[in-house]
Amino acid sequence: MKEQQKPSIYSLRLEELELWLKENGEPKFRSTQIFEWLYSKRISSFEDMTNVSKSLQDKLSQAFTVTTMKTLIKQESKDGTIKFLFELHDGYSIETVLMRHEYGNSVCVTTQVGCRIGCTFCASTLGGLKRNLEAGEIVAQVVNVQKALDETGERVSHVVIMGIGEPFDNYDAMLSFLKIINHDKALNIGARHITVSTSGIIPKIYAFADEQLQINFALSLHAPNTELRSKLMPINRAYKLDDLMKAVRYYVEKTGRRISFEYGLFGGENDTVAHAEELAKLIKGIKCHVNLIPVNYVPERDYVRTPKEQIFEFERTLKKHGINVTIRREHGHDIDAACGQLRAKERQEETR
Ligand code: SAH
User: Fold this and answer.
1) DSSP assignment of 227-242, as one string?
2) Chain centroid to CA 154: how far?
3) Which helix (H) or strand (E) segment is 253 a member of?
4) pLDDT on residue 347
5) Could you read off the pLDDT tens digit of each residue along the chain, which spans 352 residues?
6) Of 26, 95, 134, 269, which one is the catalytic site residue?
7) Does any ligand 1 atom lie closer than 6 A to the CB of residue 220?
8) What's the 81 CA to ligand 1 centre distance in angstroms?
9) Total-model pTM
10) What cofactor requirement does the entry state (predicted)?
């Protein structure tokens, strides 16, 4: 019989670790020591925790693993972007991207192996969903990238949950991940430096609003009306645009925070001035920001780029209505840095 994989120690919030210690007859203060070994000293084995008793080390290693993922690929782009392909214990591989900005180093994490949402333009969903990641496997991505940055004395300052997978389809693990990386005894990444993006799973938008976190929230909108959104994103057939906008308004009212709308520009589909006008009307009065994403070319998909001048025209139209808008800067264009591209390529090579 195959041995059951032990949970990752990185999946535990501090209070969960405290509880585990208590149940195992250990003092509570050990939890902060353990967090320090994991997140400040960044050890890769329980044996390295030298101020922790041998008997506790043994108990820990019987109950948990220190998730160490093998780096299958590490590709560095001319602009400093680094793309990692990590191997999980069961042989699946996941992508994590480090992006360098003027304001800091941002890590884009994956939350699922594959995705079941089926957006027609996205590489991550090709091949469907294989499994959810454990919280610890999401945390370990940030820890691993931080370890790579330790070589140059740099720090991961920002995290975006915009890699492969739909974070709201793996909600509990995502929430634990947020709490762990935000904790000052762990990676201490400020809530305002973390962004989560969803394709629009409505019940989870309400739940997320009620969490009252200071985390940045983005919605992949991509269309100004429900017919077009259903065509581009099948999830819109289950969670309709009208109801989605109600959830968005609830989020903004409840949290007082603004929302980011991601709007991919897919040539000939959703990128005319008329679409921009319709979009302005749809989001009128909502405290928001629009991030325009020129389509990333995916070989399996046949979307084409909107011409530059037309992108600017789209931007100007939104601005005219007083909407905050930016055009997403591309990172790592020379290394397939868009979500799912590297993994999709690997998979193709595997099946060849
Ligand atoms: N599943 C979440 C997280 C992914 S975030 C979500 O849907 O929001 C990645 C962003 O890139 C999403 O807005 C997604 O819709 C967008 N995206 C995916 N494939 C793309 C492509 N080929 N071109 C441009 N944007 C794309």
Assistant:
1) HHHHHH-THHHHS-HH
2) 21
3) helix 241-255
4) 56
5) 455 789 999 999 999 999 999 999 999 999 999 999 999 999 999 999 999 999 999 999 999 999 889 999 999 999 999 999 999 999 999 999 999 999 999 999 999 999 999 999 999 999 999 999 999 999 999 999 999 999 999 999 999 999 999 999 999 999 999 999 999 999 999 999 999 999 999 999 999 999 999 999 999 999 999 999 999 999 999 999 999 999 999 999 999 999 999 999 999 999 999 999 999 999 999 999 999 999 988 888 889 999 999 999 999 999 999 999 999 987 777 766 565 666 666 655 444 3
6) 95
7) yes
8) 18
9) 0.94
10) [4Fe-4S] cluster
Active site residue 253: no
User: For residues 205 and 209, what is the distance between their CA atoms, to the nearest angstrom?
Assistant: 6
Architecture of domain 70-351: Alpha-Beta Barrel (3.20)
Residue 162, phi then psi, degrees to nearest 5: -140, 20
Q: Is the CB of residue 295 below 6 angstroms from any atom belonging to ligand 1?
A: yes
DSSP classification of residue 328: P
Q: Which two tokens stand for residue 118?
A: 């089926």
**Distance from residue 157's CA to the centre of ligand 1 (Å):** 22
Q: Residue 279 is which amino acid?
A: L
Pocket test for ligand 1, best of 296, 305, 333 (most atoms within 8 A of CB): 296
Residue 115 marked ligand-binding: yes
17 torsion bin: left (phi>0), alpha (psi -120 to 50), beta (else)? alpha
Q: Which residue has the tokens 């997978």?
A: 165
What is the SS3 assignment for 114?
A: strand
Q: How far is residue 67's CA from residue 75's CA, in Å, rounded to a whole number?
A: 22
Rounded CA Rg of the chain: 21
Q: Distance (Å, rounded) from C-alpha 191 to C-alpha 159?
A: 9
Distance 113 CA to ligand 1 centre (A): 15
**119 marked as part of a ligand binding site:** yes
Residues of each domain in the chain carrying CATH 3.20.20.70: 70-351
Q: Which two tokens mark 172?
A: 């509990």
Strand partners, 82: 76, 98
What are the residue ranges of CATH 1.10.150.530 in the chain? 9-63
